Amino acid sequence: MVVCTILCNEIEGFQWRTLIDGNREAPVLLHLESKVLIDPMKLVWSKVKNGEQPDVIEEYKQVMEQITK
Fold this sequence. Notes:
Blueprint: H1 2-10, E1 14-21, E2 24-31, E3 37-38, H2 40-49, H3 56-67
Helix pairs in contact: 1-3
């Protein structure tokens, strides 16, 4: 959530949305111009599930690369 909150507050063009996936409802962040959809829970959970430590700075950099392609 931290990465998405920073992105939404600091970079124009992001908007919070609600993802409905079966039984799951989750806040996601959509970059309106590039249509990149960021699910903060999946960002963190995929790392934790693989035994890795989430790196907020690295996640921020990856998102910035995606939206500027």
